[in-house]
Write a structure and sequence with these properties.
With 164 residues, the protein is mainly beta. Helix content is 8%, strand content 37%. β1 (7-17) and β2 form a beta hairpin. It is elongated and about 60 Å long.
Length: 164
């Protein structure tokens, strides 16, 4: 079976930077609903289109094709008192960017990147933002999507089967 619209595709993958440094070893397979459902980057979906089990592709992506450019405005300095006692670099918190409307859906995941005295540095950028990436993958499975998966716009490989 070929990768086509409304198929569920399983990929073994890895991601490296343009210098060949591994940034994501892809320890778990990537399973997504193929066909414009925004489950995977469009460039990867386009490269995998029409492929069969066992075929591989390499996709080189600039930041705008992947996780976007690094945005310094998403780095915030916050008082240490606003955080739990057990705070470590690398911890993540959800928050609304400065200047965003409280009722807006612009909730970001912020990573603690530094703790300095009574201040905490939070970064709302994706860890791979600003990086050009090389996505290498092999198609390991392809199956027709169920009607329910198509109506929900995502796979139910994780056992999820309720409505969005």
């Amino acid at each position: 079976m070929q990768v086509a619209k409304n198929t569920v595709v399983t990929l073994d993958y890895s991601v490296s930077d343009f210098d060949g440094e591994l940034v994501d070893p892809g320890q778990e397979p990537l399973i997504y609903l193929h066909g414009g459902y925004d489950d995977i980057f469009p460039m990867i979906e386009e490269a995998v289109q029409g492929r069969r089990i066992g075929e591989s592709v390499v996709v080189r992506m600039q930041p705008d094709d992947a996780f976007g450019e690094y945005d310094a405005a998403l780095v915030q300095l916050e008082p240490r008192s606003q955080f739990p006692e057990e705070l470590q670099v690398g911890m993540q918190f959800e928050g609304i960017p400065e200047g965003a409307d409280e009722d807006d859906d612009d909730v970001l995941v912020y990573r603690v990147t530094e703790i300095a005295g009574d201040k905490v540095v939070l970064d709302g950028n994706h860890p791979l933002a600003g990086m050009a990436l090389v996505f290498t993958c092999t198609v390991t499975a392809v199956r027709p999507a169920t009607a329910e998966e198509i109506s929900h716009g995502h796979t139910h490989e994780d056992g999820h089967d309720d409505e969005d």
